Each structure stands twice: as structure tokens, then as C-alpha cells.
Amino acid sequence: MASVALREQLNQLLTSMFAEGLLDQQFQQLQMLQDSGSPGFVAEVITLFCEDSERILTELTKVLEQTIVDYQKLDAYVHQLKGSSSSVGAQNVKLACVQFRQFCEETNKEGCIQALNVVKHEYYHLRNKFEKMLQLEQRIQAYDSKQQN
Question: What pTM, to 2 d.p., does this model score?
Fold first, then answer.
């Protein structure tokens, strides 16, 4: 498949991610930091975000499984996830974290459990789109490097 067609697929995917509210302008800022000197910058940031998010989601689940929930610890993890989501432009994950933090402040365990499920849903949906995006970018780079040889 030609590089142009792959780029069009990538552009359509990104457009749909913005339209769905998965990404905000912060992601565009991140993209602008990538240049020919660091072609894998966005991919690296996304990979780190996903690894960190997976770890935090595991910790959140563990805290909520406790008989007595440590809401300060829970809130600290949610705050961390909200920050990293914000830094990569993961708008829906960030917004779900805002609601989650509200339940933490209210020490509402049921609300926190529901909020965790929403955060997980938003995160996994975004992660799947990020994976497609990264695969397209890899295919474009592979095609372009073949054309240069």
C-alpha cells in the first residue's frame, strides 16, 4: 500500500480520535515536538503513558479491593493518572479521572468502583486507537525507508 494511502488512514484515525473526544489540543502540541531528529518521539511518549497507566490501574484496583479503602492513596493514584493523561492529551481519560477524584473526596467506595470502570473503559478504548496509530506510523516509516534505498 502506498505511503499516501497509509498517511490518509492515519489522518482519518487521528481525526476520529479528536472527534470522539479521545484526544485534545495537548496531543497536537506533543506531535509538534516530533521532528526528523526524533521521529519516534510521540510513539515513545505514548508507550510510556500506556505502561504507566497500566501500572496505575492495577494499583487502583488493588486499593479498591481492600476492606478499608485508603482514599488518600487512591486519590494520589488518580491524580497521577489524570496528570499523565493530561500531558498526552488523553481527554476522556482525564475527564473520567476528574469524576473519580470527586468520589475519592466523598469517600464513596461504590462511586469509586464505578469511576474506576469508566476510567478503564476510556483508557482501553484509547489504547486500542493508539496501537492502531502506532502500527500505521511504523508501516509508513518502513515504506518510506524502502523508497529511499
Answer: 0.92
